[in-house]
Amino acid sequence: MLAEERRLRLAAAMREAGVDHLVLYGNAWQGDYLRYGTDFGILEGHGIALIAADGAAELYLDSATDAERAEAEAPSVRIHFAPDIARAVGARLDRFANSRLAAAPRRFLPRWLADPARSFAIDDGTALVDRLLMHKTEGEIAAVRRAAQIADEAYAEFLKVVRPGRRQYEIVADIEAHLRARGCPDNFMIIGSGGKDVLGMTPPSERRIAAGDLVTTELTPAVEGYFAQICRTLVVGKATDAQRRAFAVFAEALEAGIAAVRPGVRAADVARAENDVFRKHGLGEYTTSQWTRVRGHGMGLFADSKPHILEDVNTVLEPGMALIVHPNTYHPEAGYIVLGDAIVVTERGAEVLCKTPHQLFEVAA
Amino acid sequence: MRRGLIARSLVELPDAVFDARLDRVRAAMRDAKLDALVVYTNNTRPAGVSWLVGFVPYWSEALLVVPREGAPYLVAALTFRVKTWIERVSRIGEVLHNPRVGLKAAQQIASVQKSATVGVVDFDGLPTGIADDIHEGGPTLVLNEAGPLFAGLRAKADPAEIALAGKAAAIAHQALAQASGGTLNAMIARAERQARLDGAEEIYVAAAPDLARDLRFMRIEGEAAWGKSFALRVTVAYKGTWVRLVRTFCDAGIAAKAAARLAQAVAPLPSDRGFAGFTSWLVEGCRTTQPLEPLMGSRFGAANPPQSGAFVSVQGVLAVDGTTVLVGAPVLLGAPSEAASLVIDPSYH
Prior knowledge:
A: alpha+beta; 6-stranded mixed beta sheet; 35% helix; B: Creatine Amidinohydrolase, Chain A, domain 1; 2 domains; 5-stranded antiparallel beta sheet; 9 helices; 32% helix
């Protein structure tokens, strides 16, 4: 259903842009463009799809294992196993040398395909697909909404499994199993634990949770390929006054960011609303790239989609966009703190999808 | 997106292992008259950089630059805030942070030698944006394909890689041994949890839920019905070393016979004559940057047959006493004239 809806939208966008064939690239890190056109969630190797003007898709994969999986999981797509994928796709594109070709994301295409020595030229079609990825249909938003519900449930589980003495990777193993048992095959998750020495989140380490730790996590499960994220922070034991004061700034910034979301504002306006709270509290330094990457970002078929919520990003927000607003950064009195909610832009402003309270949680020390 | 344990072990990957690998690389660079070697990494093509310095990105991308003289350095798109993490989990002397990794790497190389000859591993497959940035940052650099050179250097597994392969295989075996439950998702969840608790960097579980209907593996989302006979395949990464293991849930005697047939089939590798009688088969291994690249198989012949001493993963489909069985396990090839052997017994008692 969703796949067919996307296929029709893609074909319409191609017609409007005068593109005869669209070349979509994907790998397990950046698989959203490929999934949009083929409904295949790639895990290994390169994938390159050729989308015809009527939306018909051919998918080239250089992993034999993923090619077999694609044949089973994406039956409406013609699958080609191609160990030398660039040349296999190139041989196909040789037949379209007089057509208008565009690629998304072009910067990821194997260099050989974009070489001017080829018989064909491939324009950059990234913006064409980006528009579709950002502006979601009701069906796509429904998938994001379900993913956000699963994220809430997974965070409730996270609160149960964080205990002193446990290692970070053991906690992540429990959360992954919790999600998997509920039929959720994909999740992006990073974690941090400790005190003021912790500057951010990473994949799990062997570090054991200790009393007094701040434990941060981004949980990002996917439903039908659509990711939704939640960011929360907990304290092992009783939160100190300094931790509470610090967290209050993040809660205020998140609420300010969410309140700023409405159709017609720019991503920069949301970032500014969050950052102004930090500046008001004398913490403006901690909104810079030295301490934080983004103040939120899009969500969808990629866990870190466009638009990035930054003060220099002028993408205009429109109904149907799904975002995470998260003023995550370092606080000099407490350490790294995260707090963020998945939201959808509606005509009336932000619909907050995450139901977990904006609270500095405490678990038994 | 990597989300298992990423940690360096000085016991399993001591400095001397990386030093020996880099020495071999530099000797080959001298022979090939390369001033620098560039290796791309992201979380789907991590195997070149992890072999050289142990770094595996969980996200984003990076270029490792190996100068012919001097320490390797990493140019990473990940932000400065994860610098200490990168240094902790790998053996990298210097990390440079720049969103345009190609531009920065080329500028660094050109700052030492404006017209340096640079070998790029899998140059044809390098992302176009990065290749363009390398040209912009070092317009007079001479860029060559270094994939075959690199593949030759790492074709034969060294003792450290063999030990890691054994550990990865043991993790995969334990995961499949623990796979039980009332639903397919419950089984997969148990397998995943076990692997992550045992230190897997990553685990992918695929299922062929009903072998009477379809022999193909797929990723399961939502509820899935399962048949009387079904199979699970786990793909496990452990400190940069990847293995696949397959378990068919069927009569134990039949599964044991299938395991024995697999052991016999792999013995003549890189010859494929052992697979006579298999419905299909596939040999995968790492040549350059992709952890499990197809090397030879019933669908495509012997495109890149593994060399003596290589470490690979093998999957096959065969009939045992009238029952179709999917089977698979990691394999270590012997020296010329020596038999290849399974790294772990793919049966479950």
